[in-house]
Design goal:
Ala_racemase/Decarboxylase_C; ornithine decarboxylase activity; Lyase, Ornithine Decarboxylase, Chain A, domain 1; Orn_de-COase; mainly beta; ornithine decarboxylase; EC 4.1.1.17
């Protein structure tokens, strides 16, 4: 059941360059990288539905991207540095920065209660 919409903050970002890429310029605008975003909540908190219910959560952007904005393959991780704290294995998002927000709609009714 949908109980609430969760908004999380990006607290860290890691850029993984494609080993076949010849460019050293990260801002060139090519899709030769994968992004890892770390957010301030994870599977040991509001996203416990991933562990207990095998839920698949996908983010919605807080701000609408520009029509020509490049979307990059990325994964989204919780704050613990635990390999199990993966929220999204793969999705496509623009190049976001620490401090930006991601929205997760239709979060389950018991995610907050089970995390406390």
């Amino acid at each position: 059941a949908s109980a609430y919409t969760l908004v999380v903050n990006i607290i860290a970002k890691k850029v993984i360059m494609d080993e076949d890429s010849v460019s050293d310029d990260e801002d060139e605008g090519t899709n030769d990288r994968t992004l890892m975003y770390y957010v301030n909540d994870g599977v040991y908190g509001s996203f416990n539905c991933i562990l207990y219910d095998h839920a698949h959560c996908l983010p919605v952007l807080h701000k609408k991207p520009k029509p020509d904005e490049i979307m990059y393959p990325c994964s989204i991780w919780g704050p613990t540095c635990d390999g199990l704290d993966r929220i999204v294995e793969q999705c496509y998002l623009p190049d976001m920065q620490v401090g930006d927000w991601l929205v997760f709609e239709n979060m389950g009714a018991y995610t907050v209660a089970a995390s406390s």
